[in-house]
Amino acid sequence: MITFESQHKDIWARTGKLRVGDKTAKTPLLLPVINPHIQLIPPEEMQKMGIEALITNAYIFSKSEDFREQAMNEGLHSVLGFNGIIMTDSGAFQQSVYGDVQFSNTDTVRFQRQIGSEIIVPMDIATPPDRDHEGAAEELAVTMERIREAMTIIDDGHLAAPVQGGIHPDLRKQAGEEVRETGAVFCPIGAVVPLMESYRYKDLVTVVMAAKQTISPGSCIHLFGAGHPSMFALAAAMGCDVFDSAAYALYAREGRYMTPSGSFKLAELSELPCACEVCRSHTARELQASPDKEKLLAKHNLLVSLAEIARIRQSIQDGTLWELVDERCRNHPRLLDGYRELLKYKDVLVTRDSVSKRRFFYRGSESCERTEVIRYHEMIPRFSVGDAIHISLSDDKGPEGATTFLFKPPFGPYPSALKETFPIGQSEIPQWDEDMIRSGCVAIIQLIEANPDIPVTIRAGERWNQVIADALQNVEERYEFI
């Protein structure tokens, strides 16, 4: 049986515990991809590095003259020398690349059970991004039929239920609903590797957010093929709990050196900007010349990936994931596209985000769209007022008898009693700019509209009068500057 327990949350991210049988792993979780024929880092060594789970390919094992019989007789854990959780992919990727691989849905499911896989994946269809709506719908129907068929074979809760549907949001929502009806706990979102390979992070956000809105909130979400640490934070913010990575090894074979912000060609580095054991025991030149360069580079890449997962878990616990997403997504223009696309879902994200957090750092206009700002604006109509309202950008008390609201952008007006509470008291704001002032004006409008018969005065000063006047055009007859 697979179960998932959420512990801490931030945006749509969760830290939690994934229980598979009698084994438990912390989430967010990274699954290194293992090819039994090409093991740059043996699984037993990975276990010493703190790896709690890995993923391998059932199709490769089924066709392997070296490992098939051993896996069938002894099980994957014995073959790989790994005691943690082992997930197997079905061979759907090979089918999508090579066509008919003569490995049916029932074949792969039964084979995965026979070799001791603990998270079993049916033969879903990985719909490519260029598939039209009709074709994607037909393939989704086949995938769902195969999931239901597989559940008649794997009926003890160890079956994963992939969410497909191509690049079409309505189909991804439909897939999420149908997967939810199966009761599956482990739900991979599939066929997204082509989007990541072509840096289509905006489309990735559209696909994942469509699926997430209909998948059960209690399910553990695996983003198939999300292998580079630079995008882990963005994916976690969308509610993805598990990632698998072959990139640590593939990049090593190409001589590429991973960092949380991107990758470099090892041959072009004169310094190694990392504190892992590989980088602290080698210079760039020594690593380039080492006969074990590929293995050492793979180990560095995996350690960087693990460190990023740990950093994300800590950010979730601290309530600072937005800052990490902002930092990571500014390292590439296409990631920034993805970040901005995610912010379009702020009204959805706010429904599950934490009410109180450790801090709010303003990092530019994107910060005005964050869930903390939206939630504060939603609170504005609940403020109690007297016979008049005064909003001050300069800490004055206003006319006698008026209820005075101070002003802190991007949130807007606030009563002095909230000065030390979140988010007002725990927010760090640089020198005010027009974007944050306009965001605060959203709250002014809400305050005015919640109190239609009460006079409102605003003291802003010459610098901000025009910005505020422009932002308040729709309520210009219901307030006055003083």
Automatic annotation (TrEMBL):
The protein, known as: tRNA-guanine(15) transglycosylase
Principal EC category: transferase
HAMAP family documented for this protein: TgtA_arch
tRNA-guanine(15) transglycosylase-like domain residues: 13-333
GO annotation terms (biological process): tRNA wobble guanine modification
PANTHER family the UniProt entry points to: QUEUINE TRNA-RIBOSYLTRANSFERASE
UniProt similarity note: Belongs to the archaeosine tRNA-ribosyltransferase family.
Entry EC no(s): 2.4.2.48
Lineage top rank: taxon: Archaea
Keyword terms of this UniProt record: Glycosyltransferase, Metal-binding, Transferase, tRNA processing, Zinc
Amino-acid positions noted as binding substrate in the UniProt annotation, renumbered to this chain: D124, A191
Cofactor note: Binds 1 zinc ion per subunit.
Gene Ontology cellular-component annotations: cytoplasm
Annotated pathway: tRNA modification; archaeosine-tRNA biosynthesis
GO molecular function: pentosyltransferase activity; zinc ion binding
Binding site for Zn(2+): C274, C276, C279
Cofactors required: Zn(2+)
Reactions catalysed according to its record: guanosine(15) in tRNA + 7-cyano-7-carbaguanine = 7-cyano-7-carbaguanosine(15) in tRNA + guanine
Role, per record: Exchanges the guanine residue with 7-cyano-7-deazaguanine (preQ0) at position 15 in the dihydrouridine loop (D-loop) of archaeal tRNAs.
Protein encoded by which gene: tgtA
Pfam families: TGT (PF01702)
Active site: D89
NCBIfam families (alphabetical): arcsn_tRNA_tgt (TIGR00432), tgt_general (TIGR00449)
